[in-house]
Structure prediction request, 586 residues.
Amino acid sequence: MRFFLWLFLWLFRWLSTWLFVPRHGRALYESLAGAIAFSIVVLAVLSAAPNSIRKYTIRAVTLLAGAFFACEFLYPVHSMPTGADPAHRGNFLTPYVFTVTTFALIVSAWTVGLGLLNLAQLHGKRLIRGGENAIYSAAFFFGLISVGIIGLLQKPHANAINKNLYTLLYTGALQNLDATVFSIIAFYIVSAAYRAFRVRSIEATLLLATAIVVMLGQTSIGQVMTSHFPTAMHTEVIRDWIMSQPNAAAVRAINFGLAVGSLAVALRVWLGLERGSFFDSQ
Amino acid sequence: MNVLRFLQTVDRRLLYALLFLTVAIPLLHPIVVPTVVLGRGPLGWLHPTFALRPFVLPVTVSPSTLMVYDEIQSLPPNSFVLLAPDWAAGSRGENGPQTEALMRHLMKRHIRFAMVSFDPQGPIISEAMAKRLQDQYGYVEGVNWTNLGFKVDQQDFLKAFVLDVRGAAPQDYNGKPVASEPVMAGIRSAHDIRLVIDISASDSYTYFIKFMQGPYKENLKMAAALTSVMAPEAENFVSSRQLIGCLVGLKGAIEYEHLLGVSGTATAANASLSAAHVLIIFFIVLGNVAMLLERAARRREDQE
Prediction:
C-alpha cells in the first residue's frame, strides 16, 4: 500500500515537473500535437470499451479525484506559501494540487470541445435537411468558423486586416448582440411586473409594498421623495434594513438547505451512487 | 368600467415604448428645470430672472459601498489587488460603470492590480477599459497593471492560483511571461494579495470565498460589485464580514463615482435609472388602483 502511494505521488511529481511547464516555438506545437493524439487515443479506447468498463473507469477516476481533494482539504494545514517564504506548501498533498487541478482544467477544456462537436452535429443535420430554420444553422457555422479563425489568427499574425476583422466580429457584433439580448429583458420585466403585481391577498400586498420601497431605495429619486421625513423613514434606510435583515435571513435559510442538498448530491456522485446516469439508461 | 379595464390591460407595446423613451431621453439630453432668481436691476428694483439649470439628483452613499471605498483608501500605495471582471456585455450597464469606478480608485491610489476573468468577454472589455483610463493616471500595462486573461474552470483555477500565482497564470492575456512583469514582483501566492474584488453578474464571488479566502481566513479581504438582482444573496457575506462590502448595481457605481468626485458613465445614467423605476412603480400602482376601483364598483352593482 505504501509502495502504491509512493508510486502515485512520484508520478504526480514527475508530471508536475515535466508535463506542465510552459513551452515555446517548435516544442509547443509538438506538445500540442502529442496531447491531441493522446487524447484521441484515450477517447477512442473509452468509446470502444464495453459499458461496464467505462462505467467503472469513470467511477474510479471520480472517486480518486474526490478523495485527493477531500484529503488535501481535511488533512491539517501548515502555513501557506508567501512571497517571503515560498517553501511552505501546506500539507504533504498540497504540492500536487496544482497538477491535479491542471488535469481538471484540461478535462473542462475538452468538454467545451465536446459541446462544439455536438452543436456542429446537430446544426449540420439541420443544414443538410434544409427547411425554414436551416438559415439559423448556417448562421451558427458562419459565426463559429469566422470568429474561430480570426480569433486564432489575430494574435500570431496581428496585421491590420486580422485586427479590424476581429474588432468587427467581436466588439462590433458579439458584444452588441449580447448587450441587446440582455437589455430586452428590461422591457419584459416592466410588462410582467405591471400584470403580475396585483394586491389579491395580504401576502401579495406585503410583497408589493416591499418591492416598491426597495426599488425606490435603490434610486436617487426615492431618496429625494423622502428626504424631508425623519431619517428612519428614508427609503434608502428602510431598503438597507429590508436587505440586511429579513432578506438576509431568508437567503441564509435557503443557502443552508442548498448546502445540505449539494453535499448529499456530491457524495452520491463521488461514491458512484447516483442513479439515472447515462450508463443506467443504456 | 371600460376605462378601469383598460388601465389594467395597457398594451405591452405602449409600455415598451414608454420605457424606451424614459431611459433614452435623460441619457441623450440632461434634464433641466426652470429656476427663478431674484436680482436687482439698474435702478435697484428687484426683478425675476428665468433660467434653465441642469437637474442633478442627490446621491446618498450606502454603508456597503462606503466600506469598499474605505478599504481601498486604507491600502498602502503599491499594494497588490486582484480584480476579477467576471462579466460580459450583457451586464455592461451595471458591471461596466462599477469596473470603471473601481479601476479609477485603484489608479488614483497608485495600487497595482491584476485582472483575471472567468467569462470569455471579461478580459477584452476590461483591458479596453484599463487602456482607456491608464494615461489619465500615469499607469503602464505590465508595470502597474496586467491582464491575466480568461480562465476556463474557476474552481480548479483558484485552487492552483492560491498556491502558485505565476504557475497558474504563467502568461498574461497578450502572451507575455508574467514573471517578467514588474507589476507581479513579490506576488507568489494568495498571501501576497491584499484585496480581491469580484465584479460579476453571477455568484462567482462565492468561489473566491470558498477557494481563496477559505484556507486563508481573514487574511485575505474580499469585496464584490454585483448586479442588482444578485446583490440580495451577497448580504449574508457582507454581514459575516467575508465580504468587506458590496457595490449594488448601477446605484453602487453612482455612489462610488460620487465618493471619487468624478462624473462618469454611472452618474450620467442616474436620471434614467430613477425615471425607469418611477415608470414601473407608476404602472404597478395604476393597475392596482384600477383593479380595486373596479371591484368596488362591481360590489355596488351586486348590492343594487
